[in-house]
Amino acid sequence: MVQSRADQPDQIARAIARTRETVRPCTQCGFFTMEPLCEICSDPGRAFDQLCVVEQPTDILPLEKTGAFRGRYHSLGGRISPLDHVGPEDLRIDALVARVKAEGLGEVILALAADVEGEATTNYLVELLKPFGVNITRIAHGLPAGGGLESADELTLYQALSGRTKL
User: Which of 34, 36, 78, 147 lies in the 20 to 30 Å Cα band around 116?
Assistant: First the structure.
């Protein structure tokens, strides 16, 4: 960029500045948008009874690319991590509870990481949401497609065995 003779570095800088000025979190789910509601939340063709909970807004993108989920999302903005001084009050958990109360959801799908912080957040949310009578599920964990047993860690193998399905 230093050696660029054109105005390309200036264009990049302006684009970054313009993005920071115009893109903001969706008021409902936390995804990226330039409007109050993102395209997903404002899409009337989405399943309004399913809500997929993710850690970060960027986690929505790979789920959307699959085309397998046609419901709506809720980004927590992180996960519970006491070592990093992140507690439930630092996340968008109150907004999640408000949505579960107000929207009459049939299912809340937890799509959080399978590490210690992700598991702690998942367990916290399950206990918090149980009283609302909503069906709480989680995405499957286990071996990646094309992955072998020899390269899998113990937790991945445990989850793969525990989450097996009948064929």
Answer: 147
